[in-house]
Write a structure and sequence with these properties.
Mean pLDDT: 84
Region (Disordered): 85-104
Number of strands: 0
Keywords: Membrane, Transmembrane, Transmembrane helix
Distance between the termini: 54 Å
Number of helices: 4
Structural class: mainly alpha
GO molecular function: chloride transmembrane transporter activity
Number of domains: 1
Order of helices and strands: HHHH
Subcellular location: Membrane
Pfam family, one: Voltage_CLC
Helix content: over 70%
Length: 104
């Protein structure tokens, strides 16, 4: 959670340079929730845990939901790409083994 909070504070600092007025703690809570949801692969559980642990207002739920949805979508996209890349590399290695056996 601290990784997500730290990244959110850095990105929140950039955000406040352009649009000042948002507290940095809000970015930390939203980022920690997104990181926790993505790492546990349980978005609803992470959202409920963070709301219960931090006792934030209901105003935070929409930004938390958006951040969780983005982190889960990114996580799934990267998993699909990694699986496709691993499948391609295993197919290439099996083809190379097949040509080495037929030549031998």
């Amino acid at each position: 959670m601290s990784n997500g909070a730290l990244l959110a504070i850095v990105l929140g600092g950039i955000w406040t340079l352009m649009w000042p007025g948002t507290p940095m703690g809000a970015f930390a809570i939203v980022g920690a929730t997104a990181f926790l949801a993505s790492s546990m692969k349980m978005p609803i559980t992470a959202l409920v845990l963070m709301v219960e642990f931090t006792r934030v207002d209901h105003d935070f739920i929409v930004p938390m939901l958006c951040a969780v949805a983005g982190s889960i979508a990114t996580n799934r996209l990267l998993e699909i790409r990694m699986q496709a890349q691993q499948a391609r590399s295993s197919n290439e290695s099996s083809e190379l083994k097949g040509t080495a056996i037929s030549r031998g």
